[in-house]
DNA sequence: TAACATTTGTCCGTATGTATA
DNA sequence: GTATACATACGGACAAATGTT
């Protein structure tokens, strides 16, 4: 399809990192299945037209990330596997979406605060006065970190959301305790950027990694906004799907 | 909100490039309006905790990209502007989506071929036999490149798609000529990755840049697939929206 | 067992790029 | 602009582990 082993020099991005990014991309795009043996270092070196040591730097970085696994005398193998798919629709529930793809999902509360809403947050939540509760969370699938999020709620509407989330590890469950039995996804805006320092720490990524940023508004059954959230997904572990069915 | 002027060292990404990426991101996120004067170099240097020479390297790179504009004796100014929003729904038409945000959009045919479909393409188009036509296209908004795409079509269904696209610069218009008056977006899968060499060339990006990859299936009014396409958007110039209305 | 090819791991030195003072 | 320290990339040589003949 679309594969060019081209390296740009003097670009501020080290050659070993460009190669590592390309290999990681190929793996997470499914071009090399889990457990498959990589071509030997010398072959990769000629393919990318670089020194073997440069290939070794790239492999070392990917080994540290857990994407590859090198064995002396035998070769280097693909350790990681396929991407998860996060399907966005009217009913978007984190654990439900992934339940068919992984054994277990978990949500952890990283921090929280009661704060004055910014114009953006107030507008998204349709608020004219009052405070908002902000919670920072991190989510894992089968104990692999896949996303971290910041959510804002109207403090008057769900005053106990912090405690409820900590107890349940789920916004859906926390909403139920606050009397919000159901809610719908009103809008989602999707972008992508380099992972920042926080992303690197929470998602266990290495610098230069990419995160998909989804900014969403959830509304109750009367159409009133109840949650405004931005979620950062590791682009190597997750893709977003829209529409009725997968085409792949 | 979420802004850390944090730099990761020894990551394979030069500090000047990390700073350039961050400034470019801030600009396209709308944090600095078009035409605004940048803070002086010394201030940026203290803000990022780096040497002034390093800031100069970052600014030089962004000037070369056209994101900033340096004026003799006056200072450095933001040349570029806000992100465009690509709203995905049942009726997704490239030029219609952007018509309210830009003056003019254009589609250019980069290349085309008649080929044996891969399993992925055949499955997406619901084909069991026959050849597919592949076209590579590039799209601009007000003469700025914002996306490039590869599309596949059933050759038996739209045999003249290449000529028709070249003449009209639009899939919608080319479909009309083939008797397909209307079509709907069935599914979209969204991911993000580093720009490859082709992306860099077509979208005029610099290495390390990020592209949003949207893989879509369009169906005719009878629900039969008519187009399978993967589009690469520059993540700095575009974001994807889903749902009824923007929340921002 | 032994010899051999293959592949990863480690060491040397050298030139250039990056970042600081 | 100059000087210094470190990261990056290259070239070569050899050691260590593995599998095969």
UniProtKB/TrEMBL annotation, chains A, B:
Q: Which keywords accompany this UniProt record? A: DNA-binding, Transcription, Transcription regulation
Q: What Gene3D superfamilies has UniProt attached to this entry?
A: Chorismate lyase-like, Winged helix-like DNA-binding domain superfamily/Winged helix DNA-binding domain
* Segments forming a coiled coil: none
**Annotated transmembrane regions:** none
What InterPro entries does the database record attribute to this sequence?
A: Bact_HTH_transcr_reg, Chorismate_lyase_/UTRA_dom_sf, CP_lyase_PhnF, Tscrpt_reg_HTH_GntR, UTRA, WH-like_DNA-bd_sf, WH_DNA-bd_sf
Listed SUPFAM superfamilies: Chorismate lyase-like, Winged helix' DNA-binding domain
Domain HTH gntR-type, residue spans: 13-81
Q: Which domain of life is it from?
A: Bacteria
Q: Which PROSITE patterns match?
A: HTH_GNTR
| SMART domains documented for this protein | HTH_GNTR, UTRA
The identity of this protein, by name, is: GntR family phosphonate transport system transcriptional regulator
Q: Which species does the entry assign this protein to? A: Phyllobacterium ifriqiyense
